[in-house]
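Changelog excerpt

This revision adds worked examples to the README so contributors can see how folded entries look when concatenated. The first example is reproduced verbatim below.
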Amino acid sequence: MLIAVGTLYFFHGNPGSKPRETAGKKKILKLTFGHSMPPNSAIDISARKFAEVVSQKTDGGVTITVYPNQELANDHKMIEMAVEGDLDILLTPTAKMGAVFPALQYSDIPFLFPHKEDAYEMLAGEPGRLLLQQLNQFGLIGAAFWGSGFKQFTAHKEIHSPKDFKGMNVRIMKSPLIMDQFREFGANPIPIDFHETYKALKDGVVEAEENPIVVIYDMKFHEVQSHIIISNHAYLSYVFTFSKKNFEKLPPDIQQILITTAKELIGYEREQIDTQESDVLKKLAGTGIKITYLTDDEIKQFQLATKGILYKYAPVIGSEVITATLEYLKRKYKYEAGDDIIIGLNADMTLGASISGMAIERGMQIAAKEINESGGLLGKKLIVVTMDHAGNTARSNDNIRLFAKIKNLAAVMGGLHSHIVMADLKLIHLFKIPYLLPWTTHPQVVQNGYEPNYVFRLSANDTYAGPFLVEQALKRTRKIALLRVNTGWGDINEEIMANYLKEKGLNFTAIESFNLGETDFHEQIERIAGSGAEIIIMLAYTKEGAIIIKHLFYGKKKIPVISHMAITGEDFYKEVKKELNTIDLSFMQTYSFITANNNRSKEFVKTYMNEYGVKTPQEIFSPNATARAYDLVMLLAEAVRQAGTLDRTAIRDAMETIQHYEGLTKMHSPPYTKTQHDALDEKGYFMAVFDKNGAIIPIGEGKK
């Protein structure tokens, strides 16, 4: 018998001919079928049933060899093989197929389907049809959706709310949507190959994972986890596909048999899952593992935590698919998921500036919670939807395009990077999206030349920050050096500060620059020391700033440093904790929860501590970003109320006419006008230091 992956073998005949007896010999078509599940799993039993039924229907003219358990390759490789024609039939999780066709992440949207029957109806109905027909353009023929049942959580402890996941390392399959799901819980999602998961759990690399109950048992995850949490949070669907390259070579009657059989066996495969789930739950009950069922109230907490995912992925999955699903849920359950008001966050959430992104997100979430508990906006809930640009300009642009497609989008908030925000401005004004900035300090992000201007900033402006930093240095010496990053942000700050010094009849003793990613600052620091400088003004991000401090620590001359606030966009203190015992470092800030004593600040701190499990205001990292993001959401809410509509142009106009707002950052009277889109000036700036625990402490408050 001839067998080769992805090759169609015929005996004495034309590949396009119908299998038949010829001169005593039968033409036999041999196909290969790959999947990742273990032998005797519901998927494997049903795959072998498919091979059996096809053989019967073709009177033995088609034989199918099933390769389970990733015997051929992992799922991602098998997808490539099918597209290239090296594998005939593929059954793979839709989440993994999402790497080729992102819309197939549909069934992984958490808590979208109240019951498995709803998932069945949607996947077999219009949403499923729309998704399957689009696979053709990716080199695959989509036949049907099979599945492994609802996914459940397993963990090393009891889980009753999203907060219980905070800080946990969780194994996930490689899927952006699933990564977002666990990130919304405050967990650290880590993609690990399916067959490496047991070892990762056993070794403590990860502490939790998600899978259907039968998979949990088959893969023995219950042996290395203490708790199973029945959450039914998403349906693990598998898409049954054929290699388009090979399928189109088959006779039409064989094509029809293959497609029809895949659909006919949907019910059979589901019966296998149901039977095995029932048996497995009985077996698990005797293993000592604790099985917990989430209550309706607990499920609502998870639904609320992940609600933004539906809106974020709606443009990716397709408006027709999501609309059809929401209409079904509305008819059956009076579900109103599509009626919320959306505020987006477009920031670095995973790489160098992720601390700033998280701080902004938390400020936004607390503001949205407060607004929703007070009745919402225009009778609707306000939902924060986060997209990660990971410090990449092109990805940030793509995020803005996706945000523009989201129904009821009121505004988008930006992150730390000035150059990324500036690259977004064309799209922001093309789509007429109010862009709220709680961190970016480059003057030109606001003075951008667009009319009308859709950018509103509540942060430092380097037009004022540069002179402020110079004045702080002049309080100590007239011998000042500048060490700055070689970017547009560094350029403009050098110009502002140098001009300010010239007005005072002074110059920097030295001006040194460096590139992003640079790791050796020896020469720059030597030249600065040789210039006679007695203090350095530093314009750097966290990574390079930390290396500069280390170079100063090991150098001959421990020159004090005054820094821009950009270093606090990541965990700077962690990198230089030892060195700061010797190096005198202070940096600019605009807000502190430690010194703020008004009622709004006290209530905010109380909410923050409850939501994120911290015990003191000092533990609120990046307080600048958190407070300013909160205030910007509150200002947006006021603009929406005044506009009385979700028309973004009307919201933009209303932002310019708000008269008073007493926020965390200050009393704004008014925050913005038609000619002024900066809500802070140098009156709100102060200098701060890190205390021995890494908390940001305003100078004058003492190192606690």
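The second example, added in the same revision:
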Amino acid sequence: MAGPVAPKDPVKKRPAIYLMYDKQIFANPGRDGEGVCFLFMDDGRMPAMAKMVGGVDDFEILKMLGPIEDFKKLVYGIGVSMINEKGVDGEFVLQIYGKNDTYNGGTSLKARLTSDGTEYLIPLNEVEWKEDDDRIGQIRFHFDKAEFPATVMVKLYLNDGYTAPEFVPSDPVDINSDRYKELIAQSLVSMGNIERLNKAINKAKRGESVKMAFIGGSITQGAGATPINAECYAYKTYKAFDEMFSTAHNTEYVKAGVGGTPSEFGIVRFDRDILRGGYFLKEGAGEGIDPDREPDIAVVEFAVNDEGDETKGKCFEGLIRRFLMMKNMPAVIIIFSVFIDDYNLQERLSPIGFHYDIPMVSAKNAVTAQFYTSKEQGRIITKDQYFYDRYHPTNLGHTIMADCIINLLKKADEAATAMEKASGLKTGKMTETLLKPMTKALETYKMPENALMSDHFEYVSLLTIGKDSKDIPGGKYLESGINGDDGFGNTWKVNAFDLGDFSEKDPASQYAERDFDLFGTMQYSDNRRHISGNKPLTLDAECKLLMIVTLDSAAPDEGKADIFVDDKLVRTVDPKEIGWTHCNALIVFDNDEKARHNVKIAMHEGDEDKKFTILAFGIR
């Protein structure tokens, strides 16, 4: 009988940096029916994760978590584990981006994962590296099935000579505690005038349908929420409103977030994404046609996206004005989200909210200061618990954002109730002191006579390029001889239009999950793409304002395009400047008076045989 086989020598215990610890992910439905979860690690995201989760504050180590040659010097191997109740195994992939071909040129480090939490190690000295390897790109988890949650752990074991701080897991957050409620209370920036908000609340209490619309960037889209449709702050806010106020539970929901895009793009897509050509969705009931088309409550979230707004606030103001000027007179709420480095544009955008006297809440005000205190000093939530990655909240982070809005809704309702009770009391100095601020907050809302910065962007008509699209209501097809009237005394007309060599369709575009959907909807499937040739796209129009929406990309065969107005070069657009596939709205011209202009879009000299995609135009 053979004796026991001698065990192998144990693997040397190495210091490790946690990138993910008990991180909740979701197997989102992919195009092929399989499940996939993307976690981007480029653009400083991996160092941010190492700092946030792993507690690394050594700058020399953090800056090595990007360039691939530095990464290989630092990291011995990657440890990965995964657990899910479905018992579905999966695959871990760390994709390296290439120097010349971003998405296809680099190495992909892979490991098969079982669903029982077993850790698998990828030693870097066993990887066959490619010559085009440049920098850390993205992490993916692939599954044979979709639509279920999983918990993952990812850590970087370090080479000899490098150290990492001891990892200490965070305590769970009690969202029912008094300390948590105090945190949420700090989010209120301004109650503003709540007359419109209370009108919507009372409408819900009477059993009438109330429409809630949310517009913003990737956080409104639901990025970081797992699953993205049911754990995002927009859905949680809508559900809470319906449960708190709607006696008939018939609240309607519109989620219109698009990742990586500012309010400059939001104003172009307003009719399509908010009004939907008259269509609103009801959970479990399919499409519901609303003859008024306009929301009763609108939540606007662009505080971390609007650095990309070239108007520096004018488009954001235009978006606020567009909502406020609707016949339905919706209530408008601004929410200020925040990045992991405490960045947002609250200082730039809050004066607009104060100017229009509308309610504002801030996730930054709620959580940021306490991040830098100890548990003993009153810290409730850590950055690791709040942030899914460098830019987006976790499920708990989305809950906090929703609770910031819910706190405002409760206060608005309480103020109206208190006002009603107090108005029946005998008048006196104390009663007047209590009533005066509530009276101001609940008096009939009036728009300011003048804009704070600009009124040029309060209405922009969407012009799509072809006639074969079925998924873009709320706009007009760009062709010769069309005209429009925005209802505010502004008319425009397109006298002539020619596609030139921008005649192909681009099948690859940005996707965004709308409303209750787990699947993304393609942004502007009815686009036009230049493949080759010298013939420009031309447009002859009478208008004040013209905007163009192009598709950014990191593909190596993308080229630049020049935009001419009346034969004068006004800008050159480089789709590779940002480095990833997303929609980019740009101003062609913005004038005080309507005039006729000839617009020409031609490929930049030397790029005549390269690709460039135009998604749509905005006109006023």
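Reviewer comment on example two: The domain at 461-619 is CATH 2.60.120.260 (Jelly Rolls). The chain is about 25% helix and 30% strand.
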